[in-house]
Design goal:
binds guanosine-5'-diphosphate; 20 strands; 31% helix
Length: 423
Amino acid sequence: MLTAIVGINWGDEGKGRMVDLLSDGQDVIVRYQGGNNAGHTVINHKGKFVLNLLPSGILREDKVNVMGGGMVIDVAHLAKETDKLREAGVVITPDNLKISDRAAICFPFNVMQDCLEEDRLGDRKFGSTRRGIAPIYADKYMKKAIRMGDLLHPDYLAKRLEEVLDWKNMCLSAYKGAKTFGVDEMTEWLHEYGDRFRPYICDVGNYLTAVAQEGKNIMFEAQLGALRDIDFGIYPYTSSSNTVSAYAPIGAGVPNLRVDKTVGIMKAYSTCVGEGPFTAEMFGEEAVRLREAGGEYGAATGRPRRVGGFDVVASRYGCRMQAADELALTKLDILDGMEKIPVVDAYEIDGELVTEFPFGEKLEKAKPHVVYLDGWKCSTTACRSFDELPAQARAYVDYIEKAVATPVKYVSVGAERDSIVIR
Ligand code: GDP
């Protein structure tokens, strides 16, 4: 069975926490896109972990974890991430971590290019995490990327590096303050941070195909949400990869396999990091209260997140783009103290009410049409069954389920592994 765990909204829906929970019956966990631009937070008996590159299954001893070819990997970051986990007692070996030979390596020059471009844009910046993600994906599609598998072929790697740097230094020279990168310097960098992963690099497509043939369970773990997908999200304020579940088999290296079930992770309210249209956004004291209650600060960057009420228009679109079969509604407990809960049930554009997620400029113009549902004003964190939830909380979940036309199977009422209601 192949299951995809994906984000329905703008990211930070609590995917890490749900993957940690749902990985229980899985054999292999695969990350299929993105790089160290996002952070998945997992809290379990060993402590609190923020994973940027590694699949969340790394925190469970009996799982194999795969970093797919759709990913971009900053090996210096991966080295630090693995070191930190090992210090906390997590075992990471080629037996439980496999890295695709096709994954692109994100270099220091990609990081620099990302920063220089954001600085150049000034007020018009995208709100990049400045970790080189857009430049390395651009390099990939320009066919200039160096891939993890190249580390296994030093002569070929040296030749490619020379070609790539020749071109990259030329591109960078257009920016004021850019430095040039030498072949020796980058070879040394790869030597220091990349070589240690050589035993982990393989054709993960072969591996996963064999695993599927044995009838084992594979879980695809997405980074970010549907509204950040490069093709279907709020372009250009998107990530630079495909976050949708349809891309999972491709990014994982198994276009020959099909996803059997997609679980969409959806937050009980809206949050968004960085720039771009965010129709449900709340401001002032109401926003501060929700941000503080939810601890809404970026796991990767610490940036305060923009917050708002649940957005029916965007979430229904997200469910459709993700082909979600069922949903996990997270952070319901964050709404515990609210008297009235704002929900955006439509957008107002040029005086008209719109319920289909709009494109481009229309989205930028959209104003929220807000309705208020009753709050429950008591703690839900101890609830473990749907019946134990207060009536207003049940009504809230039912309302959302109907509005997005997808069943809510899980309701998360806390960050810990067992703080969950399964329907
Ligand atoms: P991800 O990138 O989608 O994994 O999301 P993040 O890790 O950025 O954000 C989720 C945050 O909310 C983490 O700090 C989680 O521990 C926490 N979290 C997840 N689900 C819940 C929940 O139901 N209630 C509460 N209070 N916290 C949660």
